[in-house]
UniProtKB/TrEMBL annotation:
<protein>
    <submittedName>
        <fullName>XdhC/CoxI family protein</fullName>
    </submittedName>
</protein>
<feature type="domain" description="XdhC- CoxI">
    <location>
        <begin position="16"/>
        <end position="81"/>
    </location>
</feature>
<dbReference type="InterPro" id="IPR052698">
    <property type="entry name" value="MoCofactor_Util/Proc"/>
</dbReference>
<feature type="domain" description="XdhC Rossmann">
    <location>
        <begin position="127"/>
        <end position="261"/>
    </location>
</feature>
<dbReference type="Pfam" id="PF13478">
    <property type="entry name" value="XdhC_C"/>
</dbReference>
<dbReference type="InterPro" id="IPR027051">
    <property type="entry name" value="XdhC_Rossmann_dom"/>
</dbReference>
<dbReference type="InterPro" id="IPR003777">
    <property type="entry name" value="XdhC_CoxI"/>
</dbReference>
<dbReference type="Pfam" id="PF02625">
    <property type="entry name" value="XdhC_CoxI"/>
</dbReference>
Length: 279
């Protein structure tokens, strides 16, 4: 078992590294249980317990299932592991939820009860901006206020001001990015359009957009297809980027893009919540 202080240290490290994980905490026990109230465990995104301890197999399966669901919808949940006779007294079955509590059966000889709070800790959503146009710079600044982890990529010679971003890349080679829900916007506006779009096409994301007209995007699409780019990946781009708010200034255009990203981001969360509620 890893010391409690080491669990807390690892939580801080994983938050700083923008890694998704679940913190499971035993909040109540009744009768004989392996873990006691206050015990904690960190569950990584792949479902492995990387630090801490919340007991053996009696609770592990139910907690790991809840952890997977919590990472999917971003919502915490309470899991109550109880012997079957106590579940029967409550009138609930294993796997059933009531009043925000998911019940699970304790099949271990100890016949104890454990309540575990399962809390997802998700990295900040990632916004990757390719380009250093006025729209790009405004988009980066506004996104930071809304809690996005912002990466801005553009040649240093194209940058007329220091971007307000968490990470600044010289050029369009993005390399390794944070493992988070990702949104990619190309806002080169005439400077390195093809190179930026090529990098964006190769970057996995929940949203791709191009700041420019449909005609400009069609021209770039033809050039990239001639190079052998994937047509479906290019057609996934929204062009022009942003909601149609009648935006004119760079700040307004940036706001319209963030509004569209917010809609896409929340739509995904609503879908996950609806799926979880049907299970």
């Amino acid at each position: 078992m890893i010391a409690h202080v080491e669990v807390l240290d690892l939580i801080a490290q994983m938050k700083a590294a923008e890694r998704a994980f679940v913190l499971a905490t035993v909040v109540r026990t009744v009768s004989v249980t392996a873990a006691k109230a206050g015990a904690k465990a960190i569950i990584a995104a792949d479902g492995t317990i990387v630090a801490g301890w919340i007991g053996g197999g009696c609770a592990k399966g139910a907690v790991l299932k809840a952890a997977r669901e919590a990472l999917a919808d971003g919502e915490p949940r309470m899991v109550s592991v109880q012997p079957e006779n106590l579940l029967a007294e409550l009138g609930v079955s294993a796997g059933e939820s009531r009043d925000g509590i998911r019940f699970a059966s304790n099949m271990c000889p100890s016949k104890g009860t454990m309540d575990i709070f399962v809390e997802p800790v998700l990295p900040h959503p990632s916004l990757v901006i390719l380009g250093a146009s006025p729209v790009a710079l405004s988009l980066a600044a506004q996104a930071r206020v809304l809690g996005y982890h912002v990466t801005l990529a553009a040649p240093a010679t194209d940058r007329t001001a220091q971007p307000d971003a968490d990470a600044v890349i010289d050029g369009y080679h993005l390399g390794e990015l944070n493992d988070a829900k990702r949104f990619v916007v190309v806002s080169t506006q005439g400077k390195g359009d093809e190179a930026a779009l090529r990098a964006a096409v190769a970057t996995k994301a929940d949203y791709h957009a191009f700041v420019g007209s449909r005609r400009k995007m069609a021209s770039l699409r033809a050039k990239l297809l001639a190079e052998g780019a994937n047509a479906a990946a290019i057609d996934d781009f929204k062009a022009p980027a942003g909601l149609d708010l009648g935006a004119i200034t760079p700040e307004e255009i940036a706001m319209s893009i963030l509004a569209e990203i917010t809609r896409e981001r929340r739509r995904g969360q609503r879908a996950a919540n609806q799926t979880a509620s049907r299970e």
